[in-house]
Amino acid sequence: MSATQAIMAAPILTAGLALSFLGTSRQKLAAHPVLIYWALFVTGVFSFCLVAAAGEHLGPLLPIFTFACSATCGIAWLLTRSLFRPDGGRWPVVLVVVLYLTGFVLDLNADAPANMVTGIVSNIFTLISSTVLLLPLFEPLEGLRKNLPAEERTFRKRFVAGYALLFTAAVVLQREVAEFTVLDSMVIKVTCAVFAVAGASIAVRYRLFHPLPAGSSRQQSRRTPLEADHRLGARITQHLEGEQLFTNPEIKVADLAAVLGEPDYKVSQAITGALGYPNFNRLINHHRIGQAKAMLGDEHHADQSILSVAMECGFGSIGPFNRAFKEETGMTPGAYRTAARSGELQTA
């Protein structure tokens, strides 16, 4: 495939990747903030590829597509924040809107005679855009704490590695390799743009099926619970206790949200705000330990092994059960059973 053909194929590949994502994730395509930024990012990349492929042949549509791709780096940053820090405030959105408008005006006046004002604005725009382009590398690292689930930590590391690879190819290589022609540089850019859409779609799909662990965002933990959070918190407790959903060892926030008919992030907010738990796992383990305490203190379960009790309460193995039990009660399950049988403590 020639360089020209590769550029011409880029818009088609971008649209195909977007449609593929929509098809494979349709069961999760509810109202979710990350989907808005994903759609804007895909639109920006598609517009960039279309302008690269067709250029002046777009006629009166050229300004529209030029505007759509004038600050795609900013949308990439907002998309990354929505994946890892969804409650990061409004100022990033304002900054990206300013970048969009500035970039669009500069593109429209690209052929106008240069002057000091446009030169200064252009330099500032380039500086800020370059900075924003680097920010997605740091957003996942900001929340890379030791108490994050291993799966979430792996996801963040892979995201950073993938973005770093694309950044190196799209920005560093095509600037440092002198023998690249303008056409070669454009091929690198559109190729990286298509891969960026693929990577972003994979990351968004992961987040839709694996919601951000509750409490992993500093802003989220500072949020003041609303009355709606307290009502939802009461419903969460009712369903967990009434239907014993916690006995499912594979239960996730998304599963509980589906039962409640609420978005994942609202359930997480109710758990960390109204109910006061650090995260979803601590909530589930609290209910599991509550049932385990009742079973260990009940003479009808006197012959049941501690492993069996752990499995029946929703733990997948004895290790996590022992750690969670001691963290909540200050005792091992065996010591608790002995104390309960001797009447030294209340088992309720």
From TrEMBL:
This is AraC family transcriptional regulator. One of its GO terms (molecular function) is sequence-specific DNA binding. Keywords: DNA-binding, Membrane, Transcription, Transcription regulation, Transmembrane, Transmembrane helix. Coiled coil: none annotated. The keyword Lyase does not apply. It comes from the Bacteria. PANTHER family: ARAC-FAMILY TRANSCRIPTIONAL REGULATOR (PTHR43280:SF29). Pfam families: HTH_18. SUPFAM superfamilies: Homeodomain-like (SSF46689). Residues 230-339 form the HTH araC/xylS-type domain. The keyword DNA-binding applies. InterPro entries: Homeodomain-like_sf (IPR009057), HTH_AraC (IPR018060), HTH_AraC-typ_CS (IPR018062), Tscrpt_reg_AraC-type_HTH (IPR020449). It comes from Parvularcula marina. The chain crosses the membrane at residues 6-23, 35-55, 61-79, 91-110, 116-138, 159-175, 187-208.
